[in-house]
Amino acid sequence: MKRLSFAMLRSLRFLTAAAVFLTLPAAAQSTRDAQGSRTSVAWEADTVPATVTGVVYDSTRARRLAGARVAVIGTAISGVTDSAGAYRLEGIPPGDYSLTFHHSRIQELGVSPGSPMVRLEEGAQLRVDLAIPSRETILKGWCALEGGRLGTAHVGGVVRDSLTQVPFPNARVELDLASGQGGSRIRLETRTDAEGRFRFCNVGGDRWMNLSVSFGNQKLEGAAVRPASGEALIHDFTLRLSHEVRITGRVVDRETLAPIEGAHVDVLGTSAEALTDEKGRFGFAGLPPGRHVLVSEFLGYQERVDTLTVFSREALGVEVRLSTEPIALEPLVVLGRSRTEEMPWGELGTRMDGLTRSEIQKLVPRVQTMAELLRNANIPGLNVREVTFKDE
Among residues 93, 102, 244, 278, which one has the fewest Cβ atoms lying within 10 Å of its Cβ? Predict the structure, then answer.
């Protein structure tokens, strides 16, 4: 989909950030000249400055926005929202100003926040809440640039992986709807952009439509939607292209390699955590593929943090060695990797590289020797070399 320039998006009224004025002083001297340019702000030393407070919201996610920088345009006054999305700007001279805010989320959405005007009298305490527009409002703004009849409906959304939530670019999305003339059908097609977003603008409202999406050889059954006339409807899709992974292993003493029972192991950013058994074993199933941070700790030992990369359908076996001294530890020992398809859970902590019965059966027609079988297995780290001996 065509990406619009920053200047074009700023012109959309739909995309201006919401501003809620809870208190507004009645009158103040303007700081703009006749041509509308901002003049320098001059105020006497005994003038009491104004204060602006508020909260920044992310309407697309229905939550407050932490880490947003809020600024008073034309001054050096700015502040960053806290974990609750709140900000406070102090020391503002009396006058008319515009407020703005910046955050990486705005760049992700490809929109521009508006710059609401505020009038500040001496010593004023003003609250101004700012917000990223909702996804429906953003969709209306995009479609407004494409023209079309007033009152028509718009449909849009995002296509993501169900496990990793990674957006799918270039996924095909189809919209099937009745034309209203003799019962004929109209099928529209579009492709998702780099962020997995799609949209159909000016499709007419108050009637049922069928949305379907496909990516590669994966296709979802259609979803029936009914956007109201003049409104924007958001419908997201999730495709399962990645598969869950497993991580198992043992926690041992670095010097003696003796198993450590009761060690605490968890995967940061997930709910996966476990205590090792009497053999030092632990195991996690149902994790999404990708990079994971494994934290291992036990009383009397130094905490250890390791980063693992696990691919879709993979089982990873590791050995974690804890030390009683704060020393530089060698990398975590990977005991084995293998695809998890048709692999039994087995005993935790055992090596997991190998072939399943069904995989061997698929290879048998193409090989004649054990060496050929192992070469075709594509086991990571396995190098097969044939050595022949002459009979005496």
Answer: 278
> Counting beta carbons within 10 angstroms of the beta carbon of residue 290, is it exposed (0 to 12), middle (13 to 18) or buried (19 or more)?
middle
CATH at 124: 2.60.40.10
106 three-class SS:
helix
Q: How confident is the model at residue 39 (pLDDT cuts 50, 70, 90)?
A: very low
292: β partners: 308
pTM of the model: 0.52
What per-residue string of b and e applies to 228-238 under the rule 16 or more CB within 10 Å gives b?
Answer: eeebbbbbebe
Fill in the DSSP letter of residue 48.
P
The answer as to whether 282 is a domain residue is yes
Band (pLDDT 50/70/90 cuts) for residue 30 is: very low
Q: Is residue 168 part of a domain?
A: yes
Say if CB 92 and CB 77 are below 8 A apart.
yes
Does one domain contain both 387 and 322? no
Provide the number of structural domains found in the chain.
Answer: 4
Q: What is the pLDDT of residues 284-304, one digit of tens each?
A: 998 888 888 999 999 989 999
Nearest by Cα to 281 from 306, 323, 247: 247
Lowest mean pLDDT segment, chosen from 1-5, 135-139, 236-240:
1-5
The rounded distance, in Å, linking the Cα atoms of 129 and 85 is 10
Same domain, 159 and 211: yes
Look up the domain containing 285 and give its range.
245-353
Confidence class for position 252, pLDDT limits 50, 70, 90:
very high
